[in-house]
Design a protein that fits this description.
Length: about 200
């Protein structure tokens, strides 16, 4: 829990350093730190502590990967959280996504991380890879994405879908194709697939 939140916090600091100097961007989301405390005399020897957030607690994005809560996406904090997700996705070449953004105003806590490949930069993540796929499909850029010069994911995703559907339309019926596979290719192999 500490590692997830503090890793996301480091990304948020770099994001803030790029976004805050931009004219008109304003305040940026901050992921508050979380600390592990050892209490040897206690029945439960380990606990996490963090700053208490006072005010209306809002979920800007949720663990099911569906970008920003539709009731909150028009808020400034919601849009900036969405932009932060897009920024991290672009900075990591689609390999990592900070998700489950929630908190009070611009102060966020209890975030999640999804990674495209297990062990990306030594980080396992705590959310499914499907969150990355869903984010790429559902994300809608806003003015903050534009201010940071982030590339539209929708256009890329639509082009990929269109190219895939065009290929399948141009292929002859699979029952008329005789498939021959070299002997070596039939041997089972361990491999990692990635989507690009």
């Amino acid at each position: 829990e500490c590692y997830v939140q503090n890793t996301a916090r480091e990304y948020a600091k770099i994001y803030a350093a790029e976004a805050e100097p931009l004219e008109g961007f304003g305040e940026v989301p901050e992921i508050i730190p979380i600390f592990l405390v050892h209490r040897p005399a206690n029945n439960i020897p380990y606990a996490t502590v963090e700053e208490e957030l006072v005010g209306e607690f809002v979920k800007y994005s949720v663990r099911d990967g569906k970008e920003v809560n539709f009731l909150r996406r028009d808020s400034e904090a919601g849009q900036k959280c969405c932009t932060f997700q897009h920024w991290v996705y672009e900075k990591t070449s689609g390999s990592l996504l900070v998700t489950d953004l929630q908190g009070v105003g611009m102060k966020l806590t209890d975030v999640g991380i999804a990674t495209l490949a297990k062990g990306y930069k030594g980080f396992k993540g705590n959310c499914s890879i499907s969150f990355i796929e869903q984010f790429r499909a559902l994300h809608q850029c806003n003015k903050y994405c534009e201010m940071l010069g982030l590339k539209s994911l929708r256009t890329t995703h639509q082009k990929q879908r269109k190219a895939t559907s065009m290929k399948s339309k141009n292929l002859p019926n699979s029952s008329t194709i005789k498939k021959t596979v070299p002997k070596k290719a039939r041997e089972p192999r361990d491999f990692i697939s990635s989507e690009h």
